[in-house]
């Protein structure tokens, strides 16, 4: 074979090898959701690609047969095409034996480099960029190859199936999409600019509803505005003016004996009609939903749906009221800082290295704001105040602090044993501080 003919054959083999590499990677990297969308848009080849992904054995067997055959032929043709020419060139300066060795090495290096660059790296990068587009394009020629090499494919496929069966290895791909998969895709979309960062955070918050307990979103016991059943008209009016809310629990004697709730709209309607406000009227007081404090936010949402309510009283295992929660509280947890006035923010960034955080802030929000993966003993608390109590092993006092993960958590304000405000500061030299330490 003449030198020009050899070069033509080498180029042809490189193209064939590139085709098989592109076919292999495009099928493996194609996203099923994207392929379904292409099929919906009218390209039926995407449906065939989806079926191939379910049973890709024959497809990949053809790819491997083609790649290995081309690689062997490329080595044979390349060595025969370049080695003699390079040997004659090097004999001008080197002895014949040395020239033959150097010519063979150079020929091997050149052929290998061409195959690596143009039949492996280039097509695979091309396939990774747009796998679905190339998967549907190479489908037809690959289908012809599968027909032509069907006997060989059958032999290798059966042999491979037997080996996998003997080893007990699963050969079908698990196509289940988990919440972690969806979050990973949305995070990638946010980094690529396809999805807004706040939109991605809303999606992440939705999946957190199954792991966050109702305590992370409820109004704490000491902040609940409630009425007693026997409160007179003037007390009710004063309480509404002082603490305006949409819903108020109605109690018998104290807050731990909730008998129902009253809607502020009903009270306002009676005020506008110049009627006396009395909570002994059963038409005014509605039956209240009572839920345990161990429920997740997703479970609370389901309870709201079942009873067609948007307000619930939270009790602990001793039947003591620990808080109240509304549908708006749960949705605010999902929407994050997309809704709500600024003066209600629980985490306020003061500057680049410090934050002012409310003690009742859910620990998940604290981790997110500080870009931390976890805090120690995270199964023992749900709020920042709980973290400080666990680390200090007592009720914190003003100026108490805890160092962890390169941050200093300092208590600024305590009201009746409740931690109101915590200053979180980034340590200038986090490596100098121990992983976790407390300062009284």
Q: Secondary structure elements and their pairing?
A:
Layout lengths: L2 H27 L2 H9 L4 H10 L2 H34 L5 H34 L1 H7 L1 H10 L1 H18 L11 H14 L4 H12 L10 E2 L6 E2 L4 H10 L4 E5 L6 E6 H9 L16 E4 L4 H11 L3 E5 L5 E6 H9 L11 E5 L2 E5 L4 H8 L13 H9 L8 E4 L2 E9 L2 E9 L9 E4 L1
Parallel strand pairs: 2-3, 5-6
Antiparallel strand pairs: 1-7, 3-4, 6-7, 8-9, 9-12, 10-11, 10-13, 11-12
Task: Note the run of SSEs as H and E.
Answer: HHHHHHHHHHEEHEEHEHEEHEEHHEEEE
Which consecutive residue ranges, at least 5 long each, have pLDDT under 50?
Answer: 339-343, 432-438
Tell me which oligomeric state these chains represent. Answer: single chain
Give the total of beta strands: 13
Number of domains: 4
**What is the average of the pLDDT values?**
80
Gyration radius, rounded: 35 Å
| β-strand amount | 15-25%
State the separation between the terminal residues, measured CA to CA. Answer: 87 Å
Sheet/helix structural class: alpha+beta
Binned, the helix content reads 40-55%
Largest sheet entry? 6 strands, antiparallel
User: What overall form do the CA principal axes indicate?
Assistant: elongated
Strand order of the largest sheet: 8-9-12-11-10-13
User: How many helices does DSSP assign?
Assistant: 16
Membrane topology: Multi-pass membrane protein
InterPro entries: CBS_dom, CBS_dom_sf, CNNM, FAD-bd_PCMH-like_sf, FAD-bd_PCMH_sub2, Ion_transp-like_CBS, Transptr-assoc_dom
Protein name: Polyamine export protein
GO molecular function: flavin adenine dinucleotide binding
């Amino acid at each position: 074979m003449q030198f020009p003919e050899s070069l033509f054959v080498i180029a042809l083999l490189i193209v064939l090898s590139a085709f098989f590499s592109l076919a292999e990677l495009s099928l493996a990297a194609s996203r099923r959701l994207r392929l379904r969308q292409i099929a919906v848009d009218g390209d039926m080849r995407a449906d065939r690609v989806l079926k191939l992904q379910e049973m890709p054995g024959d497809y990949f067997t053809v790819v491997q047969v083609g790649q290995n055959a081309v690689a062997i032929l490329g080595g044979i043709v390349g060595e025969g095409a370049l080695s003699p020419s390079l040997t004659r060139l090097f004999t001008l300066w080197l002895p014949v034996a040395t020239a033959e060795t150097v010519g063979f090495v150079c020929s091997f290096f050149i052929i290998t480099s061409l195959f690596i660059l143009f039949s492996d790296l280039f097509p695979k990068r091309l396939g990774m960029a747009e796998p679905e587009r190339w998967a549907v394009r190479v489908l037809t020629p690959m289908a012809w190859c599968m027909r032509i090499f069907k006997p060989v494919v059958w032999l290798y496929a059966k042999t491979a199936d037997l080996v996998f069966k003997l080893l007990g290895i699963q050969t079908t791909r698990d196509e289940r999409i988990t919440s972690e998969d969806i979050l990973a895709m949305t995070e990638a979309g946010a980094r690529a600019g396809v999805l807004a960062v706040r939109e991605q955070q809303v999606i992440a918050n939705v999946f957190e509803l199954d792991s966050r307990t109702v305590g992370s979103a409820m109004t704490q016991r000491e902040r609940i505005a409630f009425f007693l059943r026997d409160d007179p008209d003037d007390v009710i009016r004063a309480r509404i003016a002082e603490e305006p809310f949409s819903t108020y629990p109605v109690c018998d004697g104290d807050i731990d004996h909730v008998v129902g709730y009253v809607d502020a709209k009903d009270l306002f309607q009676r005020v506008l009609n110049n009627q006396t406000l009395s909570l002994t009227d059963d038409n005014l007081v509605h039956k209240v939903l009572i839920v345990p404090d161990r429920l997740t936010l997703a479970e609370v949402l389901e309870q709201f749906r079942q009873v067609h309510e948007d307000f619930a009283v939270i009790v602990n295992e001793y039947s003591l009221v620990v808080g109240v929660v509304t549908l708006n509280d749960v949705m605010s947890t999902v929407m994050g800082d997309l809704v709500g006035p600024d003066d209600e923010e629980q985490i306020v960034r003061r500057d680049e290295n410090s934050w002012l955080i409310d003690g009742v802030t859910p620990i998940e929000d604290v981790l997110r704001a500080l870009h931390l993966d976890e805090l120690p003993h995270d199964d023992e608390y749900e709020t920042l105040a709980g973290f400080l109590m666990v680390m200090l092993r007592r009720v914190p006092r003003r100026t108490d602090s805890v160092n962890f993960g390169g941050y200093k958590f300092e208590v600024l304000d305590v009201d009746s044993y409740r931690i109101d405000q915590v200053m979180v500061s980034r340590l200038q030299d986090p490596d100098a501080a121990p992983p976790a330490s407390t300062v009284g």
